[in-house]
Amino acid sequence: MPKVAIVMGSNSDWPTMQQAALMLEKLGVSYSAKVVSAHRTPNLLTEFAEQAADAGYQVIIGGAGGAAHLPGMIAAHTYLPVFGVPVRSSQLNGIDSLLSIVQMPKGVAVGTLAIGEAGAANAGLLAAQVVALSDKTVREAIIAFRTEQTATVLALDELSLPQ
Ligand SMILES: Nc1c(C(=O)O)ncn1[C@@H]1O[C@H](COP(=O)(O)O)[C@@H](O)[C@H]1O
């Protein structure tokens, strides 16, 4: 059973949410990806969120744009940690998505990431960090990823910087 569930409000969110999937793949974390919408498929959302823990998921990543109620509604139905990714919207550039996700009422928590692809990648990283608490292989993969990232930055010299 996959350890991380990536859910998104529409298949149009996939180019953004794919960055979460790519990060999980890089770190060797199993995941599933599915379209579920609080607005368009409310019953499916309830069913998915209520059974997610029993199904063996450890973390849920929810990505949505505009009136992005998806991550909050999932969080309302499960004790699993939920990370929310505000997908960039065509009308308001993702500010609407960000504010919809981040302004949760006290007592129901969503960990909100940055708007867009970087936020999705970091949601994948954070989800892997949760999984790593009980998985040594993933822990080592995260440490190797961070070490390589640091080495890449340190290897930059002035000449290789863009003019
Ligand atoms: N914000 C939500 C929810 C939800 O929060 O349940 N369901 C779909 N959507 C969002 O609507 C946007 C446009 O969707 P379409 O491209 O399908 O019209 C998407 O970014 C999706 O996440």
UniProtKB/TrEMBL annotation:
Give the matching Pfam families. Answer: AIRC (PF00731)
- Indicate yes or no for the key word Hydrolase: no
* Pathway per the UniProt entry: Purine metabolism; IMP biosynthesis via de novo pathway; 5-amino-1-(5-phospho-D-ribosyl)imidazole-4-carboxylate from 5-amino-1-(5-phospho-D-ribosyl)imidazole (N5-CAIR route): step 2/2
Q: Which InterPro entries match?
A: PurE_ClassI, PurE_dom, PurE_prokaryotes
The protein's UniProt keywords, in alphabetical order, are: Isomerase, Purine biosynthesis
Which residues span the membrane?
A: none
- Establish whether keyword Isomerase is in the entry: yes
Give binding positions for substrate.
10, 13, 40
Q: What is its EC number?
A: 5.4.99.18
Coiled coil stretches, renumbered: none
Q: Which reaction does it catalyse?
A: 5-carboxyamino-1-(5-phospho-D-ribosyl)imidazole + H(+) = 5-amino-1-(5-phospho-D-ribosyl)imidazole-4-carboxylate
Show the SUPFAM superfamilies listed in the entry. N5-CAIR mutase (phosphoribosylaminoimidazole carboxylase, PurE) (SSF52255)
GO terms for MF = 5-(carboxyamino)imidazole ribonucleotide mutase activity
SMART domains xref list: AIRC
**UniProt cross-references to HAMAP family, sorted A to Z:** PurE_classI (MF_01929)
The entry assigns this protein to a family as follows: Belongs to the AIR carboxylase family. Class I subfamily.
Q: What is the protein name for this chain?
A: N5-carboxyaminoimidazole ribonucleotide mutase
Organism source for this protein? Answer: Paraglaciecola hydrolytica
